[in-house]
From TrEMBL:
EC assignment: 2.6.1.19, 2.6.1.22
Protein name, UniProt field: (S)-3-amino-2-methylpropionate transaminase
UniProt xrefs under InterPro entries: Aminotrans_3, Aminotrans_3_PPA_site, Class-III_PLP-dep_AT, PyrdxlP-dep_Trfase, PyrdxlP-dep_Trfase_major, PyrdxlP-dep_Trfase_small
Key words, A-Z: Aminotransferase, Pyridoxal phosphate, Transferase
CDD domains listed in its UniProt record: OAT_like
Keyword match Hydrolase: no
């Protein structure tokens, strides 16, 4: 079976069938929608995919964090099929369907937010989830502004692309929404030299406080929005002591804390959400937005908040035609059942321990491996020219990606300078597949450096 296979390349990439399809793509699809790999999928199972030419790849990207339970899980296929035989769609503003309620009840049970009584609404994408979280915060507080951070990625809608740090995602799209102000995210590897971690946390906390002096007074700030682990920004985790400091600032100033767990959610971190770690440390968010792996590839996102907050939203502000679609809700309920039953949080930590040990050995061996970081099974390896100067080495990462794809491993870059390799492997990967992937990536580093 494909799900038990190892990587196997039988034809140079792209193969003849893939080449023909990629030519059609070039003619039919905007060039701005880039394709990183010369690969056209024909089927996928577990952590593996097969292309139209019969090449078999180990996928360490997983649809950029969408496939935590892997491709084509048989139970997920059956759940969606069973729902499809009843009805595809029922808009919640018109007629109630029970799947939406059942999934909302489950999310209210598992999502860690500050208020004990919670409510959940659904949308279709990560950007929609973040945008709705911001609307909820503004409507509840009556305040106009939000604070985001350097390195942030929150989506490609006009609002969320403005919230996103990297301006390549919004070049030429102005005028942009007002009231979005940016603090400095604690990127400890590239933080001020000579500071201990404790002093660095103080430094970044003071930087946030200065936003209130230099950009927006606190009484006009509805929410602070952050990713618990920055994704596109380079897989940079928010230090828990800094999160605690931000939570304290929010509580003192009447600001809501929004966790953007679009990419970090659903067992990736070793817990269902990174915010579970926050809750244990006494700094749970007020609102949590998530998407990606929630429904195993069926478009769905969720926004969970304290009931007091979400019930404070004015009528007409939230909702939408497809949010909480019946097929997507059926898929999400099965995904959560599989994660809990098969202890994929535990499996995430097992995979992470093995990979972290290997990645750290490369850090000791290769001058070009500068930093290894992340939470659980969401890890990044930052590549540099040398350890003294820490100059970003995007060229090496580009060469590594090409080598890996030609040898049956799909990995992806991240970071402001595209010099970080991200690890988002499906959590159902076998030990043999994981070993094979580590071997290919190590060979890529040795060959390309």
């Amino acid at each position: 079976m494909l799900r038990d296979s190892l990587p196997k390349i039988i034809t140079p990439l792209p193969g003849p069938k893939a080449s023909a399809i990629l030519e059609r793509r070039k003619e039919a699809i905007p060039g701005a929608i880039k394709s990183v790999y010369p690969c056209v999928i024909s089927r996928g199972e577990g952590a593996m995919l097969e292309d139209v030419d019969g090449n078999i790849f180990l996928d360490w990207v997983g649809g950029v964090g969408v496939l935590n339970i892997g491709y084509s899980h048989p139970e997920l296929v059956e759940a969606v099929k069973a729902q499809s035989e009843k009805y595809f769609h029922a808009m919640m503003n018109i007629v109630t369907h029970e799947g939406y309620i059942e999934l909302a009840e489950k999310m209210n049970q598992i999502v860690p937010v500050k208020e004990s009584r919670k409510k959940t609404m659904f949308a279709n994408s990560g950007a929609e989830a973040v945008e709705n979280a911001v609307k909820i915060a503004k409507s509840y507080t009556g305040r106009p502004n939000i604070i985001v951070f350097s390195g942030a990625f929150h989506g490609r809608t006009l609002l969320t692309s403005t919230m996103t740090s990297k301006k390549a995602y919004s070049a030429g799209l102005g005028p942009f929404p007002d009231g979005i102000y940016r603090g400095e995210f604690p990127y400890l590897y590239r933080g001020p030299e000579g500071l201990s971690e404790e002093k660095a946390i103080e430094y970044y906390t003071e930087k946030l406080e200065r936003v209130f002096e230099e950009a927006s007074p606190a009484e006009f700030v509805a929410a602070i929005v952050m990713e618990p682990v920055q994704g596109e920004g380079g897989f940079i985790p928010a230090p828990i002591e800094w999160v605690k400091a931000v939570r304290k600032i929010c509580d003192e100033k009447g600001i809501l804390l929004i966790a953007d767990e679009v990419q970090t959610g659903f067992a990736r971190s070793g817990k269902m959400f990174v915010s579970n770690y926050w809750a244990e440390a006494g700094c749970a968010p007020d609102i949590l937005a998530t998407a990606k792996s929630i429904a195993g590839g069926v478009p769905l996102s969720a926004i969970t908040a304290g009931a007091t907050i979400i019930d404070g939203v004015k009528n007409g502000i939230i909702g939408g035609t497809y949010g909480g679609n019946a097929l997507a809700c059926a898929s999400a309920l099965k995904v959560i059942e599989i994660i809990e039953r098969d202890d994929l949080c535990g499996r995430s930590l097992e995979i992470a321990a093995k990979c972290r040990m290997e990645f750290n050995s490369w850090k000791d061996t290769y001058e070009e491996v500068g930093d290894v970081r992340g939470i659980g099974c969401m890890m990044g390896i930052e590549f540099i020219t040398d350890k003294m100067n820490k100059t970003p080495n995007g060229k090496l990462v580009s060469d590594i990606l090409d080598y890996c794809s030609q040898h049956g491993l799909i990995v992806e870059s991240a970071g402001t300078y595209s010099n970080v390799i991200r690890f988002l492997c499906p959590l159902v990967v076998t030990d043999g597949q994981l070993d094979s992937g580590l071997s290919i990536l190590k060979s890529a580093i040795e060959t390309c450096r």
